[in-house]
Design brief:
By secondary structure, the chain is an alpha/beta fold. Helices cover 39% and strands 17% of the residues. The chain has a single domain (33-338), classed as Alpha-Beta Barrel (TIM Barrel). Helix 5 runs parallel beside helix 6 (189-199), helix 6 (189-199) packs across helix 7 (212-228) and helix 9 (289-298) packs across helix 11. The chain is globular and about 55 Å long. The chain binds flavin mononucleotide.
Length: 345
């Protein structure tokens, strides 16, 4: 990384440590987003690590590098800016109708991460079509979808398909009423996956729920159903549902470093069991280059994060990508795809 890159990295670290991490959340969150939208971060040519050794192909979804900004943001200005910060892909979010999200507070600090009660705040399909049509960027833009019924999911897939590069069926959201309901009748995912596959030819991802009580269903029903219906990209995983009396529903969604061991373990198990049939995105607790690389050695083809982006700042994608290139050089490997599942490296 050049001097300017280090300077931006250090400045962000200083600002986060002295200001964002100390202000009450109700001020820190809007301040962070306000500044992010207005600071001309993308003016500097310091984020990209274009290098063909980093290119990955997730069952037809081609990314310039394996670092994904996971679903969280619905503001088009934030998404468009994030697409210029060295990520390999960026994910927005959608439901059929507009949603205001849950009442405040919606994000609180918890340990080294956050607990959120976001409630899928977004503009709804009609407005999102215009938004996604307008967003410019030279990396893939995807959208994370949830709904109150299978019909809702399929409607969004069908309507937004032409305007995005890929779609993620989110089955693991603790913050909406329907969010985790597939886990009480997991066989219904077969209808969802079959329907979604028929509604679009764009790459589809299934993002599964996290937590011991969902794990058997992920391995026993949901991933096998996805494979059977031709969806071969699995994102492990969403946040962890935790009790949180400060939120109106009494529960919240934990993100951040506490999730990493669970992410790594489950990615490894998914790779062992289904590795020849699926491509895995490891999401949850990745906030430094070493963790990203370890998740890939366990079996991930790409990594996603949100909390790390907030706590570590805009240079994290580049730091991860440069770290990967260094490791590839050391081990004489030609492409990051050969690291997937190579735990001995
Ligand atoms: C404020 C917030 C909003 C989120 N919204 C979504 C969403 O709309 N759809 C989704 O699939 N995941 C959503 N997530 C989950 C993240 O995409 C990710 O799976 C989770 O935060 C774990 O990654 P992390 O530890 O890097 O944050 C959200 C997370 C946060 C913190």
């Amino acid at each position: 990384m050049d001097r300017l890159g280090y300077a931006v990295d250090n400045l962000y670290g200083f600002f986060h440590y002295t200001t964002l991490s100390r202000l009450p959340e109700r001020l820190a969150v809007p301040l962070g987003r306000w500044l992010f939208k207005r600071m001309p971060l993308e003016w500097f040519d310091i984020y990209d690590t274009r290098d063909e050794r980093l290119e990955v192909d997730l069952d037809g979804l081609k990314l310039p590098n394996p670092v994904i900004l996971a679903a969280c943001y619905h503001d088009p200005k934030i998404l468009e800016k994030a697409m210029r910060l060295g990520f390999g892909a960026v994910v927005g979010k959608a439901t059929r109708e507009p949603r205001e999200g849950n009442p405040e507070p919606t994000i609180l600090r918890k340990g080294k991460g956050f607990v959120n009660s976001d409630g899928y705040q977004n503009q709804g399909v009609e407005e999102l079509k215009g938004i996604f049509r307008e967003i410019r960027g030279d990396i893939p833009l995807g959208v994370s979808i949830t709904g109150d019924s299978i019909d809702d999911y399929l409607y969004v897939v069908g309507e937004l398909g032409p305007f995005v590069d890929f779609m993620e069926l989110n089955l693991g959201c603790p913050n909406t009423d329907y969010g985790l309901s597939f886990y009480s009748k997991p066989e219904r995912t077969r209808d969802l996956f079959k329907g979604a596959r028929m509604c679009t030819s764009k790459p589809l991802i299934v993002k599964v729920a996290r937590g011991e009580r969902y794990s058997d269903t992920n391995f026993g029903v949901i991933v096998p159903n996805a494979i059977r219906e031709g969806i071969r990209i699995i994102d492990h995983a969403n946040t962890l549902e935790v009790e949180e009396p400060r939120f109106h529903r009494g529960i919240g969604a934990l993100s951040g470093p506490e999730l990493f061991e669970d992410t790594k373990g489950n990615v490894g198990n998914l790779h062992t069991e289904f590795g020849k049939d699926i491509r895995i995105i490891a999401t949850g607790g990745i906030d430094d280059p070493g963790k990203a690389y370890r998740a890939m050695r366990r079996g991930a083809s790409a990594v996603g994060f949100i909390t790390g982006f907030i706590t570590e700042g805009p240079m994290l994608p580049r730091r991860i990508n440069e770290y990967i290139i260094e490791r590839l050089k050391e081990s004489g490997i030609k492409n990051i795809q050969d690291v997937t599942g190579a735990f001995w490296l």
